[in-house]
Give the backbone structure.
Amino acid sequence: MPLARILAAAALAATAALISPGEASADGAADEAELHFEIGAEAYLKGDFRAALEHFLLSNRLVPNRNVVFNIARTYEQLKRYADAYRYYVDALDGETNAQTIATIEATIERIAPNVAVLQIESNPPGATIYLERKDLGSRGHAPKPLAVPEGKYKVIVELPGYEPVTIDDVTAKVGAETRVRPVLAPIVGRVEVAVHGAPGAAVHVDEEAAPPVCIAPCTFETPPGQHLLHFSRRGFQAAPQQVVVIPRGTVKAVAELRPLTGAVVVQADEREAVVEIDGKAAGFTPTVIQNVPVGRRKVTVRLRGHAPIDREIEVRAQQTTQLVDLKLVPLRQVAAASRFTESIDDAPSSVTIIDGQELRAFGYPTLWEALRGIRGVALMNDRTYPSAAIRGLGDPNDFGNRMLVLQDGAVLNDNLLNSTYISTDGRSDLEDIERIEVVRGPGSLLYGANAMSGVINMVPRAKDRPSSVHASVGTYDNAALRGRLGFHYNFTPKIGVWASLSGTRSDGFSVDVQPGDPASGSTVVAHGVDSQRGYGTAGRFWAGPLTVQWYYNQRKHHLPIGAWGSIVDDLGTSVFDERFLGEIRFEPQLTRTLQLSLRAHANYYHYTGEYRYPPPNGSPHDDFVGTWLGAEARFIWTPREGLRLTIGGEVQGNLEASLRGEVPEAPEPSVYMDERRPYNVFSPYVIGEWSATPWLRVSGGARLNAYTGFEPTAASQPPVFRAAAIVKPSKTTILKLIGGNSFRAPSVYEQYYHDGGFATYVATIPGKFSLEPEEIITGEIELTQRFLESWSFLGSVWGSHVENIITTILVDGANGGNTGEPDPTGDTQRYVNKSDPALLTGIDFELRREWRQGWMLSASYGHQRAQYLTGDPALAVNPRLINAPEHLASFRSVVPIVPELLSLGVRLVLEAPRRISLESDETTSPAVVMDAALSGGIRRFGLSYVLAAYNIGDERYDYLTRPSYFSKLSRQNGRTVLLNLTVQYP
């Protein structure tokens, strides 16, 4: 034999010895395979390698065997088909464990490697089936695997069940080199889209609950096809697993239904009906047990209007009860009118009383006039035309209450003709839109300009943070008046909202005995239909962040059968009509951390019509007054550091129309007796500073100029105003206030220019002869408050005021036209004049007060005041006491819960002390003690609240002063009357 064949035969024999035969098969295939192997071996020994290869391949196909694979490799090598030989040598290594055989094969592979090109296929993940060029040629094994191929370019295809196949084109194979091919197979997946109900943020786990989350629902993730079990988790929640069948390359949807793990929370506070919020959402009213509270950390807030909110962090555990008990709500005791920003009463540089909203609801006060009854330092007046009030002894029966200002949330409601305060139904039909009433005693011109002379009354409207609702109410009072209202409150967002109301009142009046001022002039007349009236109004507010818009409108027609201004008694033809509109817009942004801008603009309208019935031949005069004015104000509030505030501002007011017209319209002799048009403008710059020098000392002060144009008296005669205060707190419960300042009141257009042709009133201002100067007042006060027992306080105050140029009315002789200006006690015509004698007003006040806590309150006050002229007039010096200034002011008010929420009892007692009637005599009114009692409460479940009250329950008969031109010098006030008011709110 040739040497090559001898070596091949030796190798074949050696291989047969090294490689153990495969297991025999019982179906006969083994015999056939063995036969082909023997035939192949014989052909190999003969050197017929092609025939040997054919039989070796057939044998291996019938029964795969590593020794046959090795022989196939050897045969390919003999045929010099090194690439195929290389591939089969590699296959022969697969699963081989015999070390000697492995060494032999590896040596052989290394020997022929320089003759072949190798593609090293390494799939990720491993195990992929390898194809070259085409799949129909069959696979080349499984990766990782080296493939020996002829030199050239190849297409490599790899496939693995569950993965996307990968095809790599133009893989270059070079002889003697190894080319690595590393295909990455992407798994074949489907998509699962998970929604979540109940709460966001559920973690999704696949197949195993303890497996790491694949995403946070709502979400979408990919996963291998097939059946999977989804688990969901979120702290404080539970959810049932969801089974899904994932479709290859498809999308399946699942929903996580989260149900909170809950516990209960018990909340108790020292105040009932406080709103309880859990994580910012209202959940009930104290005391309450709140069920189904999600477990975990929760923020509990307890809110009650007029009190500082309480915040608590709690941990709610599943199926357990967490208790928050013995919570104490502290009253805020806040006021806005004293400094034009909300501050504690203790820090306000004024003497302040707050009529809380709870008191307004407990007594059902129908008007502001009624709410002011019994307030420290306040005396009421009511001549059956315009009810008004005086503060600390300064109130003339004919001044229309124009020495104080009435505000709605800081906007002045006094008109520009009479500067009158409208505090009865001439102002509004009810107080149900009012959150609280602030009474600020003392000069207020520094903040509000003219006419804030003796004090300021500010009605604070309903708060912005009330819940959305609608309400309706109906009621009656004074045994004759009916009233009704509709309103709503709606919150668009937490910072944008609106409320509005429409209300009305009507009365056919009642009968009153009217006694003549001079008993010799006639007998008592019964006037029918006294206080008969019709009126309605609307108010509202819109807010959006720093922007606020408010509006107010009211009109009333009031019949006066009482002989007002010399008219016929018991004739309903005498009447007055008042119409008032206010629109205001504010923009109050915080520009920087230390600087705030406050802008406001307002438009106002006032209309008065008076119809008077006089005995023949005087006819029926008709008055028509119109006032229209616009205003704007800008303030810069600078707070460079905590406790220090500087306000610089200015106000401009243009009184475009201020007209007084009077005529007798009926034939045969129609005539115009008055036609005054007196527009004027006002400009007022001011500066105010407040400084908390130490925790126990706070000082404040400011100044304001007031310039008038087109108005008598001239601008030069308007005095500058000042105010200064020091507040000392020796302890946390002791507050000492030292307050001083001045103010003025410009004479109104009405006081200067009104006349009725000399029948009852002469013009006060005659160029070159008569004129009115502004009233001026300087006030000083020391007020000490001592708080004790958490809710109680005792207040003592000493005050004094010096007043000049008091504007009052005098009677003059109508026969000479009143041109002398000299008073004539027997005269029948009045004229406004400045009192030449200054006045000194001094007083001392005491008040014991228990703030609203646990549904009840108490206030007992006493004030002694002396108001007298400083005069050299011997006649007046004998009794220099001012008229209409009671020396004693005393009241008691208390509300006590009987059945919490359902029924409370309110009691009010007010001393009506004697008042001097005129300077010409020492005659005074009779004293009286007026007692009111009210039952109030509600049923929250039905949104129902009620007030049933008896005013002047003792049926006391007492009088107030009237104006000099009235038929009677006294006006008898109501006896016992009943009030009833029902309100329904939803929700």
Remarks:
- The first strand starts at residue 117 and ends at 121.
